[in-house]
Amino acid sequence: MDGGILEPSLYSIKALAILDNDGNRLLAKYYDDTFPTAKEQKNFEKNLFNKTHRANAEIIMFEGLTCVYKSNVDLFFYVIGSTQENELILGSVLNAMYDSISQILRKNVEKRALLENLDAVYLAVDEICDGGIILEADSIAIVHKVAIRNDDIPLGEQTVAQVLQSAKEQIKWSLLK
Amino acid sequence: MMLKRDKKEEEDGGNPFSNLEKSSVLQEARTFNETPINPRKCGHILTKILYLINQGETIGATEATEAFFAMTKLFQSKDTTLRRLVYLGIKEMSKIANDVIIVTSSLMKDMTGKEDQFRGPSIRALCSITDQMMLQSIERYMKQAIVDKVSAVSSAALVSSMHLGRGSQDVTKRWVNEAQEAVNSDNMMVQYHALGLLYHIRKKDKLAVSRMVTKFSKHSLRSPYAYCLLIRIASKLIEEEDAGSESPMFDFIENCLRHKNEMVIYEAAHAIVNMKNTTAKDLTPAVSVLQLFCGSPKPTLRFAAVRTLNKVAMKHPAAVTACNLDLENLITDVNRSIATLAITTLLKTGNESSVDRLMKQISTFMSEISDEFKIVVVQAIRSLCSKFPRKHNVLMTFLASMLRDEGGFDYKRAIVDCIITVIEENPEAKEAGLAHLCEFIEDCEHTVLATRILHLLGREGPRTPSPSKYIRFIYNRVILENAAVRAAAVSALAKFGAHCEELLPSCIVLLERCQLDSDDEVRDRATFYTSILKQQQKSLNSAYILNGLQVSVVGLERAVHNYTLEPSDTPFDLKSVPLATQPMTEQKTVTSRETGDMGVPKSMEKPVASRIDVYAEQLSGVPELANLGPLFRSSQPVELTESETEYVIQCVKHTFSHYVVFQFDCTNTLNDQVLENVTVHMEGGDGFEVMKYVKCASLPYDKPGITYTLIRLPEEPTAVTGTFTCSLKFIVKDCDPNTGEPDDEGYEDEYVLEDVEVTVADHVQRVIKPNFGASWEEVGPENELEDTYALSSMNSLEEAVKNIVLYLGMQPCERSDKVPEGKSSHTLYLAGVFRGGHDALVRAKLALTDDSGVTMQLTVRSSDPNVSEILASAIA
């Protein structure tokens, strides 16, 4: 339980996970060897899920780790770090992950939509955290970097450049026909 | 067909990936080789592969390599999503597939290409397949990328350098100028990553780090993450320099408390709280921002604040009192972790009057929090009990209700531990506590806890005003439980019979019934105890029931083993077995009280070999020291040299029945010398005779060696103490510090050490008697000696108790080493075994007088008159 000062380092995230409402893994990334085998990882996820799926409390200390989490419909998002880690940093990463995925899924944050766009979700998570280092924590920037099927994103949420790009493409296609 | 698919999807919760077969997916990967490439289809297959890997599926090296090579074909497609998925695939497979470096050129093309979307991710993919050899070839591109104007590229390059730098710093060191430039970037993340890399490169150079912090603390960074990192670097510097709040670094951290971003403010407050040399005044600004956070609508922020305040409360409870009102509001927080932390903090800072209310509050949600937090609550209650002994009623009731609730073993054990400590510390709480424990074992699924409680009942129960009421609880165990618990219950019953005469007949009846038990151990114990109890002799009761066996378990095992190896006509002598320094059941409570006194590891629960057993083993390996008889006692090591001198010598005294072996642990700290034929010469001590020196043949630099000196004790039985002057004698040979090769020629030299003393304590082994009164009667007044002393140099009872225990080297019993506060008189009970196996007991009645310090009436009982004399005169 006791804190202490953490070695100054860029490595602040131990793991990210997205589970469904039965506690099954949809996506999980472990960035250090706290849980070296897949079995230990899944076991940890199961236990974590059992502790968190009922009470929507946002933060829990669990098995000597700090876990921040968020849920919507049938999805549970987790960000896990050391207990000495600044909880607000973990929280900011969780928000970045949730918000960017929410935009990618067009506010339709549920399991079916997530699985349909799994490729984009993988890319987004890859842009958020690289090997335990926070790469980007601004959801707009993340979505921009993922830039997947930008023609599907509603007009209101596109940047001017994206709109121009898609307009250009449409004109090109109409000319080709 | 369509219908069928829908149905199938519903069955597995609509997860199209849930039934993937590894082999068929890898089969599908062959589609990658088709031309033209269908990006959508290939992307889907690639996603499936990524999904499988992410689920923890293991893919063999051959399979992975095959898929990896197929994947490289996808570089022909220009589709952005597909290309990015390929990067992910490369990263995932870089650890399992062979020959991954073949994609290097493709990735390098993307990295330097026009498409910005590809450049960042391709750098990261490239670095995941790069090894030290290849690093040279991409170095130039990495340097360029770090200072690239596109933030994603720069960040990717910085982060990748960080990963590479973990392996070797040599290459990344050369990128320091680029990193320096990148810190000035307008992009927040680039700034953060650059600062991290810069620190990583320079962290060995304290001066450079210090300069870096000074520079950036003025420079006002943009990224809150970078600020947090800088705060951590600064607080590490403060820690290393052992500086306090006067350091300029501290000013920087304190200034961060006024930053506009919560993350930075919290990091600064957290850093200040965790510093070692902070005063209550330094903490105040940090505590007040944390107080503000307690009212935040964000649970994470509240959690962070309360957790940190809880930490403050451990060292400076007064500093947190200002937040009591805010903490009170958090007691009802929906996040139970926050509520628990708030309450435990309040318990630390609050006063006696608020205890009742807080306890009531906790009991409303105890069932909702995790075991880990419940243990935190139990620990808080434990400290509360010793802080406010008068509140034991409320706290005990609370603990009892927690015992009744559901919970795991660790949680239950924490509660039982807590109750036992309270019982031991507070005699008033004893009866209530025992009653709760009795109730608990009625329905306890943990054998370990049940036997532990039964043991406690056997020890404490007979001495309560109405012992008969515990008999029923104990006998119920005999009827209902498993063999281990039944055996423990039988022992407890016997103790009641031995201690309380009026209960003896009924105990004998109950024990006789136990002789019909189905388990051997239970029957044996019952038979043994019944026959002893029927003798109705106090000394037997004390020796065999109330104060059981006092030998070390490991020692006994070895002694019996040796006995069976060498058949002899003489019966096995229990006195030849080394005594247990502490009986195993007492170990935990005793060590936590006198931390480290006996040099045994704290969490020792199994009978591990104790120090004396280790020494006995070690000494038996020295042929010159054979035939001394069993080892009786080994002292704590004593330093005979100042630290930091040429030779470091430690002395351990081993007492045998007629001899003392002095063990000298020597270390040579000069790297240009080798010592040979090292011995320690000893002189002095009336009647003590040096018998033998066992030399240490060679003592090279920094390799500890041992030499022994054997001394025979005087014939006169009461002459036991003496002082010896010691000098280290040896032959010095100079040697080459690098090779350690010594010269042929050496010369004799000698080195004077500090004196060694043999004291009374060296002849006494500590032994705990759980029932001191019974032992006192057992030994009897035959060799009793009594005298009164004025200890004028002692100013308090605690001091007197401490010194008496130290002089005599005996074990305080019945917790009599703790002097209740505010008393002017106290009785100390000490037990031990004198060299030669003579039981020795001491009762010291102490009284504090205003003018002449402490007056002591010392009564010694022993099985040998000489021993009584030695002990009685030891204090004078």
Topology, please?
The complex is a heterodimer of chains A (177) and B (876).
Chain A: E1 15-20, E2 25-30, H1 38-52, E3 59-62, E4 65-72, E5 75-82, H2 87-104, H3 111-116, H4 118-128, E6 129-130, E7 133-134, H5 139-146, H6 160-176
Antiparallel strand pairs in A: 1-2, 1-5, 3-4, 4-5, 6-7
Chain B: H1 2-11, H2 22-28, H3 39-54, H4 61-72, H5 80-93, H6 104-112, H7 116-129, H8 132-146, H9 151-167, H10 169-173, H11 176-183, H12 188-202, H13 206-219, H14 224-241, H15 248-256, H16 262-274, H17 280-293, H18 299-315, H19 317-320, H20 324-330, H21 336-349, H22 355-365, H23 371-387, H24 392-404, H25 409-425, H26 430-442, H27 447-460, H28 468-480, H29 483-499, H30 504-514, H31 520-535, H32 538-546, H33 553-565, H34 587-593, H35 611-620, E1 633-634, E2 638-639, E3 647-655, E4 659-668, E5 673-683, E6 689-694, E7 696-699, E8 705-712, E9 722-734, E10 747-752, E11 756-758, E12 764-766, H36 772-779, E13 785-791, H37 797-808, E14 811-812, E15 825-834, E16 838-848, E17 854-862, H38 865-874
Antiparallel strand pairs in B: 1-3, 2-3, 3-4, 4-8, 5-7, 5-9, 6-8, 9-10, 9-11, 12-15, 13-17, 14-15, 15-16, 16-17
Domain Coatomer subunit gamma C-terminal (chain B): 761-875
Domain Clathrin/coatomer adaptor adaptin-like N-terminal (chain B): 22-536
Main location (chain B): cytoplasm
List keywords for this structure.
heterodimer; A: 177 residues; alpha+beta; Beta-Lactamase; five-stranded antiparallel beta sheet; two-stranded antiparallel ribbon; 6 helices; 42% helix; B: 876 residues; Immunoglobulin-like; TATA-Binding Protein; six-stranded antiparallel beta sheet; 13% strand; globular; disordered N terminus
